[in-house]
Design goal:
heterodimer; A: alpha/beta; Flavocytochrome C3, Chain A, domain 1; Methane Monooxygenase Hydroxylase, Chain G, domain 1; 5-stranded antiparallel beta sheet; 17 helices; globular; B: alpha+beta; Ubiquitin-like (UB roll); Fumarate Reductase Iron-sulfur Protein, Chain B, domain 2; two-stranded antiparallel ribbon; 7 strands; 36% helix; elongated
Chain lengths: 638, 255
């Protein structure tokens, strides 16, 4: 039986990373040139990793299905990036950021990983500023910060409501510099279809050129999957339309364990759905909760317009229930409370599936100009979508699937259970436990890419045989190419009666209804059955027009959805097996009377790492989490 | 909820070397709360059900930031709304019974790949030529050791909000990329971190821009008018100044 080795270094928490770096093997510059690294995905994690590794002298190939690396969905992150700089003198420190993140994740993340993340957070800001990332500044010319959910300090750096865009453009410029210098080679409009494993070691990938349809292999001494999360398994999410799980799922089927698949973050502040045609949901940054107050009417079914509901008839339920953190409780808490009040019939708007986020107090207190400075582009975006002016009427918001804490299981070096295969950023499961705090995704993506992988990968590559130039002659490459081609052919040949989107929407709704903000065993069992039926239907009824030898967006979509339909089943199984509530995973059987999560640390204080078996079932492996530095408590934001 | 019906004339072109043509489609009972791209989704779903090939168009985030989408709608880049990408235009901006023309970006430097999808990799190559600050990972100084006046930082930020969609090129009668290039040059030239490569950068980027086959700027201002992020024309003035300065002081960039 395989035993999971997280490779967490010995020693005091604060010394682990330092000691580890000192002990890692190095590759000399003249040997780095002989080593090929394949980076898949060009978001914050992928671009920063590719740029940093190319700077070091490795041969880097970078793959993205977009036309340009700059389109990756990191670009859409709005609110900010955390760093323990303590510029505010408000009591912040690496320890505090570490603790907030561990607690925010409801004690289901590794201490050592999270501490390292907090440690390198300060270097990220330095690096980004040096690249020219135009962070918000105070009049004195120094960097501005703001507060975010789940914390009581102001450690979030930002560039208006476009922080992800500015950070990604920074990493993209660093990558572009390497492409221009010829140290990194870029493959745009190229999608990963499989990874190639030879004698248990990852040796390359199979990709499809999305313009010509040509399927080809690339050899790599190491492969980095930086392909983001899988929120689109729900069909409706805040993810970009093309975001998908194919890379990590195909890796999973080749032997990479999948960690905590059911840990999905539902973001509390999104623009509510308006109809069945809806193609995606739009996030409104969490930073809005700094100044916006969340409320619903006290009365059920109160249909009066918001400005006609007097103050005493409003329920500012987050402030009422969580006086210490108020509107800035973590995302999981805010989301489930929104669901509770809507389930009680106190939701607002046409569908009753929304709550108000009201800025009138803040505008009175600070003036419209200040609010515009802080959130101008977000207000504009809201108005464009809803045709309502949030300076005058409160925003209507509702929770939506946003981020997946689950992902490929990785050890402390970010290596998956397949040697040579790494997962970075949202694609891995590592740092956020059962709930991610706001402004921590950007931090993790860049930490992994800029400051962790450049160290840890050398330790692996120093041990591989790079005397001979790698190639794709091994039959394993041909086999993988063939199985990828066959799968596409099969999809094209079904010629059924339903479109990919239709089936995806149905499957997504099952997950949202049964494996969304709250879950219970009865529902999950029912969902499993329904979900498998949809998958069955997909493989008999889907209609994919066109051919495989051309640009074919329907085929791309069908291929991705076929993987979602397998992943969704594992998510349900994972949610069903975890008989506790923690963070985002709220099992109705395990909650207090007022709806707070009850963890079961005796039995479930572990990472669930699922191993795929050839017959389409899974084995569960447990990585028990050891807490030596923090005390496990019930999270309280009251 | 209001609904409208519109007639679409959509540019269809199988591949780069095929000749294209307009095809007519009817979008009936479209909810006005739908986005323009969601309307195209509906049209595509119907085409697939009829056994036809859906319209290929590029899109991703659908919240106006990734820069993937770019359609010429009724003769305007990104359609009828100022400062708005086509993915953020909703059907309430159109009238019942209206005929809507949908075309790809048209520019020599942006060859058509299929239907409404064009190849914008020329933009990437311009950035690769010099649109960066050369700072290897790990060699950065402490962030607050470089104070930047707020006004300067804000100006740099404004320029940096360009999403690289190519609307400026599509809107320009000369298919010039000056707004795109000037936004990046401005962003980096304003910041103290960008000074070391200031002149070298502008020369390299302009050289690449010319090599890609973009046209020249004749100060018409169509780019600014159609830019979904309202990038200012003053950036082009700054680009010209930077370029001139770089040419006048060769020793400073020739390194």
């Amino acid at each position: 039986m395989f035993t999971l080795d997280s490779k967490i270094p010995e020693g005091n928490l604060a010394d682990k990373w330092k000691n580890h770096k000192a002990n890692l093997k190095l590759v000399a510059p003249h040997n780095k040139r002989k080593l090929e690294i394949l980076v898949v995905g060009t978001g914050l994690a992928g671009s920063s990793a590719a740029a940093s590794l190319a700077e070091l002298g490795y041969n880097v190939k970078v793959f993205t299905y977009h036309d340009s690396p700059r389109r990756a969905h990191s670009i859409a992150a709005q609110g900010g990036i955390n760093a323990a700089k303590n510029y505010r003198n408000d009591g912040d420190s690496v320890e505090r950021l570490f603790y907030d993140t561990i607690k925010g994740g409801d004690f289901r993340a590794r201490e050592a990983n999270v501490y390292r993340l907090a440690e390198v957070s300060v270097n990220i800001i330095d690096q980004c500023v040096a690249q020219g990332v135009p962070f918000a500044r105070e009049y004195g010319g120094l960097l501005a910060t703001r507060s975010f959910g789940g914390t009581q300090v102001m450690r979030t750096f930002y560039a208006r409501g476009q922080t992800g865009q500015q950070l990604l453009l920074g990493a993209y410029s660093a990558l572009s510099r390497q492409v221009g210098a010829g140290t990194a080679k870029l493959f745009p409009r190229t999608e990963l279809l499989d990874i190639v494993v030879i004698d248990g070691v990852c040796k390359g990938i199979v990709v499809r050129n999305l313009v010509t349809g040509k399927i080809e292999s690339h050899f790599g001494h190491a492969v980095l999957l930086c392909t983001g999360g899988y929120g689109n398994v729900y069909y409706l999410s805040t993810n970009a339309k093309n975001s998908n799980c194919t890379a990590i799922w195909r890796a999973h089927k080749r032997g990479a364990f999948f960690g905590n698949p059911c840990f999905v973050q539902v973001h509390p502040t999104c623009i509510p759905q308006t109809g069945d045609y809806q193609s995606k949901l739009t996030l409104m940054s969490e930073s809005l909760r700094n100044d916006g107050r969340v409320w619903v009417p006290k009365q059920k079914g109160d249909k009066r317009p918001p400005n006609q509901i007097p103050e005493e008839e409003r329920d500012y339920y987050l402030e009422r229930r969580y006086p210490a953190f108020g509107n800035l409780v973590p995302r999981d808490v805010a989301s489930r409370n929104a669901k509770y009040v809507c389930d009680e019939g106190r939701g607002v708007g046409e569908t009753g599936q929304a709550v108000y986020l009201d800025f009138s107090d803040a505008i009175r207190r600070l003036g419209r100009d200040v609010i515009e400075q802080r959130y101008g582009n977000l207000f504009e975006m809201y108005e464009k979508i809803t045709n309502e002016n949030p300076y005058e009427v409160p925003m209507r918001i509702y929770p939506a699937v946003h981020y997946t804490m689950g992902g490929l299981w990785v050890d402390y070096n970010l290596m998956t259970t397949i040697p040579g295969l790494y997962a970075l950023g949202e694609a891995n499961f590592s740092d956020h436990g059962a709930n991610r705090l706001g402004a921590s995704a950007l931090m993790q993506g860049l930490a992994d890419g800029y400051f962790i992988i450049p160290y840890t990968i050398g330790d692996y590559l120093a041990r591989v045989d790079f005397s001979k130039k790698g190639n794709t002659d091994h039959p394993a490459f041909k086999d993988a190419e063939k199985s990828a081609t066959d799968r596409l052919r099969k999809l094209l040949d079904i010629k059924g009666k339903k479109t990919v989107d239709e089936l995806h929407r149905q499957a997504g709704k099952i997950l949202w209804d049964y494996c969304g903000i709250t879950r219970n065993a009865t529902d999950l069992k029912e969902a499993l059955e329904k979900y498998r039926n949809i998958r069955e239907e997909f493989w008999h009824q889907v209609n994919v027009p066109g051919t495989g030898e051309e640009l074919n967006q329907s085929l791309e979509k069908a291929n991705r959805v076929s993987d979602f339909l397998e992943l969704g089943e594992l998510m349900i199984l994972d949610a069903l097996h975890r008989n506790e509530s923690c963070g985002c995973h709220l099992r109705e059987e395990y909650m207090t009377e007022d709806g707070e999560a009850i963890r079961n640390d005796d039995e479930y204080c572990y990472v669930a790492a699922w191993e795929y078996k050839k017959d389409g079932t899974w084995d569960l492996h447990k990585e028990y989490l050891v807490f030596e530095n923090v005390k496990l408590t019930q999270r309280s934001y009251k | 909820m209001a609904t409208i019906s519109v007639t679409l004339k959509v540019w269809r072109q199988k591949s780069r070397n095929d000749s294209g043509r307009f095809e007519t489609y009817f979008a009936k009972d479209i909810n006005t709360e739908m986005s323009f791209l969601e309307m195209l989704d509906v049209v595509n779903e119907n085409l697939i059900r009829e056994g036809k090939e859906p319209i290929a168009f590029e899109h991703d985030c659908r919240e106006g930031i990734c820069g993937s989408c770019g359609l010429y709608v009724n003769g305007r880049a990104h359609g009828p709304l100022k400062g708005t990408t086509i993915c953020q235009v909703h059907m309430r901006s159109f009238k019942d019974g209206e005929t809507i023309y949908v075309e790809p970006w048209r520019a020599k430097a942006f060859p058509i790949i299929k239907d409404l999808i064009v190849d914008r990799s020329a933009f990437d190559r311009i950035i690769q030529a010099g649109g960066f600050i050369s700072v290897d990972t790990g060699s950065a100084v402490e962030a607050n050791s470089i104070p930047i006046p707020k006004a300067i930082a804000d100006l740099a930020f404004e320029a940096a909000t360009c999403i690289g969609c190519g609307a400026c090129v599509a809107a320009c009668k000369n298919a010039s990329a000056m707004l795109f290039v000037s936004a990046k040059v401005t962003h980096l030239a304003l910041l103290p971190q960008g000074q070391a490569e200031r002149y070298r950068r502008v020369i390299k980027m302009v050289e690449q821009m010319d090599a890609e086959g973009f046209g020249n700027c004749s100060n018409t201002g169509a780019c600014e008018a159609e830019c979904p992020k309202s990038i200012s024309l003053t950036n082009i003035a700054r680009l010209n100044r930077e370029y001139l300065a770089a040419r006048l002081v060769p020793r400073q960039y020739d390194n």
